[in-house]
Amino acid sequence: MKPFVKPIYVTQPLLPDLGVFNKELSDTWRYHWFTNQGPKVKKLENILATRLKVQNLLLFNNGTIALLAAIKSLNLSGEVITTPFTFPATPHVLTWNNVTPVFCDIDPYTMNIDVNKIEKMITKKTSAILAVHVFGIPCDVEKIQQIAKKHNLKVIYDAAHAFEVEINGSGIGNLGDITMFSFHATKLFHTAEGGALSFKNKLLKNQLYLLQNFGIANELEVRLPGINGKMNEIQAILGLAVLRTIKRERIRRKKIKKLYIKFLKETAGIRFYEDKLHIKSSYQYLPIRINEKEFGRSRNYVYKKLKEYNIFTRRYFYPLCSEYPYYKILRSSSPKNLPVAHQVVQEVLCLPFYGNLSDADVEKICTILQSLQE
Ligand SMILES: *Cc1c(COP(=O)(O)O)cnc(C)c1O
User: How many helices and strands (H and E) does the chain possess?
Assistant: First the structure.
């Protein structure tokens, strides 16, 4: 099999219709209004609150700043229990808030924080649980709620991969105290850079709004040491245009996932996370697990070999956050505490997954992958 002529990446940012984008943009030229809660940000905020089925939503300039503000608004201190199998932003926002991340092992199937191992990580210093719906797969949210209630802990969800995920028809952003969404260009729905927080407690809105706008309450009063976390009008306009393409993109991605499964389901040592009936999937990533013993080759071997064919998959989230030099010194980072995470992070490979992949591309990727087998 010959390599692909053009490189195939793990994803491709959605490009909206340029006409739609320009039309929205022309309003901004008339208003002379680029940022500070402009009309386009308000419009996108309203539409997204409906689409995500949440009561309160606040847009931010990126997901990391949103999560940073979320932690700040809840006044968390001491330790927060989180997962090592995530993007660096998740533990970093804790560190920026002078909170120590405590890494808890993950579930071998969902790859999310293992709810059966959370309680033994709780100490007198624990103030919250920061869980991630990794690859858009929902955490065991009921058990997390139970544990939080029993120990009087706050719950924050990093739903960066979980745009429009629903459990039994309810938006994923309705869970815990605050949920963060990321609208980075590599995410399914994007505003180039961007993010949002959703939350049930209406009282949080003012606090979060102050935190994202330097703490400015009015012309004369700066109430708290806030940051600049505002989404601007150009980001919102891009979002409004991209939003129109999501439905079509998701239908295409669903088809692509079916094709991957069809071509690879007989291959020993390759497993998919199958869609569940009661969960609306984000179709953000297509992670597979490669079992070295059964497949005959390691995930790392496959990753490197695919590059020779111009196929650039991603080993998310390798290395684990607990392996970064800055976090490795933490007691919870000991590999003995995280056996499942260390296993899973050697197995996961995210395959190219975006609407512009043709059926033939998918078939070729699968054929190449199978040809690597011992
Ligand atoms: C993308 C991502 C973030 C950060 O979002 P940005 O909008 O890029 O700041 C946080 N957590 C996870 C799990 C992510 O994948």
Answer: 14, 17
